[in-house]
Write the structure tokens for this entry.
Amino acid sequence: MTSSLTLEEVQRTAESVSSLQWPGGPSSIGKPLPFRVRVVRTNEQLEKAISLRAEAYGRHVPELATVLDKPEEIDRSDKAIIFLAESKEDGSPVGTLRMQTNLHGPLSLEQSVVLPQRFQNRPLAGVTRLAVKEGRAGKQVKLVLFKTLFRYCFATQIEWIIIGARPPLDSEYRKIGFEDVFDDQRLVPFVTAEHIPHRVLAFDVLGAERKWFATNHRLYKFMAYDYHPDIEVFASISGMWSRPRRMRRSDSELSVPANLGIPLV
């Protein structure tokens, strides 16, 4: 993970995003963003995510920049989802992250660490390759990507988000609700990050909203109440029944197994 926010910056950024209004006035539903967040589905979108990764990691971890200037094997697999934020003005990439679940195999970070028992046989999401544009706009994008990740994981019944964070960036993730996986806060060399030492942190997806409310956390309104229609990762669900009935398969043709026939993204 690259870039960091102080607690005060988190508050200011969340408030600035929350204050945005649609051109139609405060009665309109939703708060607009200057960018859209979508799931990467095309080679063009993947190329945008790759270029931004190389740029961002080149600023903070130069030894990784040359490794990340091309797609990794997992990028094109069905085991990972890549979120991409694109500017509405010119379509340029302004933020990206990659999420992988353990529903069909171990997380990539498990090449570097054995997770404690409480995480074994539980639905997890590992997050890697977070990258945002430099500057003030990048802070807003990072916060919205985190909201996208949180909402997606909650909707798909993921219990914990697991990340690796380089000191001193790990302290910034604790401020938004991440906790140490290991009591001794050990540093773990990550195979997927040129063996650079990271702290392993976890985020309680199912308990987060309750904790934010109980502690009057500065992120609570932004994460739990604000509606951002430019977070479009669930667009295929909203469009499922909007097609003319003749274009859908008949009920007798629908198979229900694992995902109940409902597209998640």
Q: What stands out?
A: The helical segments are 7-18, 43-60, 62-65, 136-155, 170-175, 205-214, 220-225, 235-238. The chain has one domain: 7-230. Residues 20-27, 240-265 have pLDDT under 50 and may be disordered. The two ends are 24 Å apart (CA to CA).
